[in-house]
Design brief:
It contains six helices and no strands. The protein is mostly helical. The longest helix has 14 residues.
């Protein structure tokens, strides 16, 4: 029941979520989910629920399980930009591709500087190049 224009913050006993939060299946890398697909799902659900990047940054940890949550706690707590967080999570959970030296040397900057450097670093790691 709402009083004084305050929303009802009662928790739904079936989902243990505040009703204003989107219902989402948590990302669990151990069950074969692809992080890129899950992030698209997460972003779409947040868009439907009118959740902005600030909300996503504060709440994404509720929707991570297993090694994804561990990686988030160990490496991502100081990140303040949602797009940067997504890039770092994707970089960590990306399935390794076969990369050769020509992929590394021919990789070109396009529109997104952050994405370029994340991909270049990922190629370098796969080739065991020192930073």
């Amino acid at each position: 029941m709402e009083t004084n224009n305050q929303p009802n913050l009662a928790v739904n006993s079936n989902t243990n979520q505040i009703p204003s939060e989107p219902f989402l299946i948590a990302f669990d890398p151990e069950n074969g989910m692809r992080l890129e697909a899950w992030l698209e799902y997460f972003n779409n659900a947040c868009k439907i629920s009118n959740k902005e990047n600030d909300w996503k940054m504060l709440n994404i940890s509720k929707y991570l399980k297993g090694s994804a949550l561990t990686h988030y706690i160990n490496s991502c707590l100081n990140i303040s930009n949602f797009d940067d967080l997504c890039n770092i999570l994707i970089e960590n959970f990306l399935k390794p591709n076969i990369v050769n030296l020509s992929d590394f040397s021919q990789h070109q900057l396009r529109n997104n500087l952050d994405q370029y450097f994340h991909q270049k670093l990922n190629y370098g790691r796969q080739l065991v190049l020192s930073p």
